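Deliverable D4.2, example record:
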Amino acid sequence: MARTVLSSGLITGLTGLLAITAFGLTACGGGGGGGSESRVVTDFSACDKMPDVGASAISENSTKTEFVVSDFFEKPFDRFDLEAVLDASSTSTTAYVRSLGIGLYKIPRTKMAGQCPTYFNLPLAPKPFQSIWSQASSGNTGNGQLAGLFFEFCGDGTGAGCRPRDMVQPTILVDEASDRWTLVHEMMHYNFNQSRKGIPEIRTNFEIERALSAASKRFQKAMGDFKTLPNQGDLFQASEALREVAELTREVAVRRPLEEVSIEGLLIDLWAKGEFKNVSAHAPSSGVWYMTYSRDQFFNLLPPLEQSVAEIKALAEENVWDATLKDATETEDLLASMRHEVDTKIEEAKRKIKKVQKWVDEEHFNNAKGRVSLADSGDEATFDAAKAEERAKEEALNHLKMHDADGLQQKLEDTLREMANSL
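Output generated by the structure prediction step:
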């Protein structure tokens, strides 16, 4: 077992080896003393980045562990696993991911004309995993709309049998024509989850859910008592409980919708520095679209909280209860800072991309459509931009839902609505 260290920063400076070019798959067979050889040729003519272009992943990094703190919401991750693949080819990246004990499979497309078979070297996903993909992709199993998916296959695959401190059958599925950025993105979901589960000081999802339930009950009891007999003590207790719920909301969001912002922001930062290589030129701006969409899902959580804070502030002002007013105002500021924090990260990502790619403008970010494939038919004449946008949003939402297998975010949403309705 490697020594685990918690530190900050990302150490780079990777060395690379030449990748071996693979233009086809060779299968040998025969019997009865004889033999024959057939060659199944894979068409790479549509690839702007060949799957074998890049260095070999640093295989020895799979035996090392050092948790560092990301600049994105202080999320810890194992720097060795990310550094191992920054300059790697797609084929070498797949080998490294599988060396971590992750089940890695491809989802085939019904049409591959004009598409790059990036993951030609991966086995097809087994039927149970194809069903999970179909569920996350709105019943679509073959045309490659969803780009990638990470999950722990616990029990029946719903997450009910997952463990708070151990990874259970970590699995990544990728559309066979998605790019290398997609695979590294999904690997980072594994990385963040492994790090969270491996550091005892970080609360488990169950512990957060229990704290959320307790704070919500304190809030509702205090507000109930206040309605029965208005007094500063009960309103102050309600305000304090609300502050804790606000802090827990951020904690849940950082490991749910804001994890997408963390991953894309981190990869864009490394790409802009010239450290993350061998990816599509459009992948960074696609990442900004995904960051923005995930931010919006987080922002959807905040109105019930903001409504509750406004109610307490109004009551405190009406009764001139300064201590309660001060406490509620601090919670209001906390919620505003959450919005500002996420917006700032997205704007920083845009600036980094524009600095490297001079041709990118704001409209390009809006039209990037996230980490999904949209014109799968290859028929530009039939491409419907509005329909593609809706499909991208649907796929992104389903992708986010799949990362809430234990229902933690759903529990938060239900709790916030219940609290707002109790006022």
